[in-house]
Amino acid sequence: MSDKLVLSDEEWKKRLNPQEYQVLRQHGTERPGSGCFLGTKEPGTYVCAGCNNPLFKSGEKFESGTGWPSFTQPLKPDAVAEYRDVSYGMVRTEVRCGRCDGHLGHVFPDGPPPTGLRYCMNSVAMKHAPEGQSLPLVTK
């Protein structure tokens, strides 16, 4: 993605609420079952809470039973970036925003067809733009 958003830690602290900062910038997670987007089915686009980068279409969302909103694929390949995560004694694939590098969640190879993937995301790391609306990209 060519329009990267790079801010200092202090700038992120000013822009994000404490829970958003903990997840997006410190690679935290929300408690399972606590996220506001867990059961939503409203049409639209899920965007990064840090920069409004479009991430997932609501049509790709499915109920995984894990306690976090799950999607079969990102809106476009460069919407997210994937990194090897070996924290907590596990080997996983971390998913970050392709624009601001904010931690979104993890992707697992146990999702439904057609991709077989489960993008397991933190609700606090996202916002929802209703169908037909878009949120302006955050700039410096």
Structure description:
The chain has 140 residues and is mainly beta. The protein has one domain: Peptide methionine sulfoxide reductase (Metal Binding Protein, Guanine Nucleotide Exchange Factor, Chain A, Beta Complex), CATH 2.170.150. The chain has helices at 9-15, 18-24, and strands at 44-48, 54-57, 61-62, 70-71, 80-85, 92-97, 103-108, 118-121, 126-130. The strands form two sheets. Strands 3-4-8-7-6-5 form a six-stranded antiparallel sheet, with no helix packed on it. A three-stranded antiparallel sheet has the order 2-1-9, with no helix packed on it. A hairpin with a 5-residue loop joins β6 (92-97) and β7. The longest helix is centred in the first third of the chain and has 7 residues, at 9-15. The protein starts with 8 loop residues before the first helix and ends in a 10-residue tail after the last strand.
Sum this structure up briefly.
The chain is mainly beta and 140 residues long. It has helices at 9-15, 18-24; strands spanning 44-48, 54-57, 61-62, 70-71, 80-85, 92-97, 103-108, 118-121, 126-130.
